[in-house]
Amino acid sequence: MPRVFGARPGRSPAGPYHAGKTAPRTRPSRVNPAARDRLVNPLGAFDQPATAVLLAVALAPLAAAPVVLRVFRRVIPAPVLADAWRRYTGWLVVVPVMAAAVLIGPGAVIAGATILSLLSFREFARVTGLFREKFICYLVVAGIAAAQFAALDNWYGLFAATFPLTTACVAGFAAAQDRPKGYLQRVALGTVAFGLFGSCLGHLGFLAAADAGYRPRLALVLVAVGFWDVARYVVGRAVGGPKLSPHTNPERTVSGAVGGAVVVVGFVMAAGWFVFDGTGLHDPARLAGFGLLIAVAAQLGDLMLAAIKADAGVGNLDPLIPGHGGLLDRFDSLILVAPVAYHVIHFFAGAGAAQSPRVFTGG
Amino acid sequence: MDDFDLKPAKDLGLNPWARLSSVRRESGPFLGAVHTAWAAVGRVYFAVWHRLRVIGREHLPAKPPFVLCSNHASHLDASALADPLPLGIRDRVFALAAGDVFFERTFATVFAAGFINAVPVWRKKRTPKALQELREKLVNTPCGFILFPEGGRTRDGNPLGFKPGVGMLVAGTSVPVIPCHLSGTFAALPAGIRFPRPERITIRVGPAVSFADVPNTSRGWVTAGRVIEERIRALAPGGPLKAGVPANEAWPGGGY
Prior knowledge:
The complex is a heterodimer of chains A (363) and B (256).
Chain A: H1 33-38, H2 49-71, H3 78-104, H4 106-128, H5 134-153, H6 156-176, H7 183-209, H8 214-239, E1 243-245, E2 249-253, H9 254-275, H10 284-312, H11 327-349
Helix pairs in contact in A: 2-3, 2-8, 3-4, 3-8, 4-5, 4-7, 5-6, 5-7, 6-7, 7-8, 7-11, 8-9, 8-10, 8-11, 9-10, 10-11
Chain B: H1 16-20, H2 29-49, E1 53-55, E2 66-69, H3 77-82, E3 93-98, H4 99-102, H5 106-116, E4 118-121, H6 128-140, E5 144-147, H7 165-170, E6 177-183, H8 185-188, E7 202-205, H9 218-234, H10 247-250
Parallel strand pairs in B: 1-7, 2-5, 2-6, 3-4, 3-5
Antiparallel strand pairs in B: 6-7
């Protein structure tokens, strides 16, 4: 075809106003349509039978708890009973929301993780006073957004880069504010905040985005953390005994921690046997170790929030979930579990092996 | 900006709705951004629609704490007074607004707290504790207050009598009180009018006055209130304005 002077590719030489003669500019999309469609795929919610089983396992305690609480209402002390009902009300909100996100698709999980990260950071900033350092807060929020976008794009390279880059921005721009007094506190809080709510919680999105069969795996992790919380509470209340960390949180007991760990290890061994069938995690010892790691990370996350609140001299966070107080009160144990679970699953079961990386950015 | 201190938010533990109408409210990054954006929009609006003029700009404070006191004729007054303040401190400048007008309906509360950065003063159920809370917020946060000692808008353009409440906030403290006089806001948006008219607004700012040596007693409050009233009236165009005297008689050159 002879080249017409002044004409540009894809445009009619007669000019842009001759719409009928203008050839549409077609540019191949760099986004893998299959991978993009996978981000929201409620029709495939039960492709893996284990998902339905785990959903039932998650919902069963919600159905059983009112019966148990009514039957034992004369045995359980009134304050404990009232506290249990408040917690139950909170679970009634939390479980369906989390289940819906897992079933809808990785896009919903990542959206949920983004909201969770931002709201958790907000609570952290309000407890520590970091919220008054608005510029550092904007940098952390930008870092969280980048980390979650990396999860949406299934681009682990970008995700890994967000931590050093956000740290560099926080440390650098905080120095540029020319306020040396309190510099270390501001930078340390900003960095820890991004580490916890951007980097650690960002792994939740990757658990969903990096694996086509993510639903039972993610559900297993979420249910395990939920069971740990309930078991820790019930065993700790029922058995009592020595305090786990009396200066940090006098309510936590060794018996609760052990009870929670036993329940989680048992649950992960039983459910993981089916969920991780055909992978390197299909081994009783590894599953037990995985369960133990989840329990330890959950307990440390719980103590971490207690330490933050104790250091700041704060009793309660902003009330958001009935029975649980703030969002962090409910999801504190998940913060440290998310990276542990992702890397264990990635190492033994090969998360992301069959998934398209960089769904939106291509490359 | 002050040095960093590991102090939780003063309004921690309140639900979002209670926070909006709480005197203890502190703006975070989100609300701070909304306030700053609104202030930037307001700056353009007042410059274009009302040709805002500030006389005595050099007396305006650069950082909190401070109290801006002025006569009150219109809902535009608080925004107009805040307009010439630096954008960087706007999320720490609070307009004291009538709780029964601005904090009893959802939309008004969201607008007053979210955009104007107002905190409520309950005129009918005001208690010494509430004023003490405001005083502590002013001194300890530290922050800036915009308040109108008349306690309400004039309905006919004539000034109302000043109340000594402002004295309860500042007597015995070194917080500077900056007397201001607003003219043109009554013509632009008097009570009963929904949309502002394009009238010129002028702010006259006087030198700051401190009441550190005035005792924090009822007598001290009255003294402080009287001094502030005199300073504001002295700023009026055409000479001091007396309460109860029609504006046109008191001010040959204009009025509100």
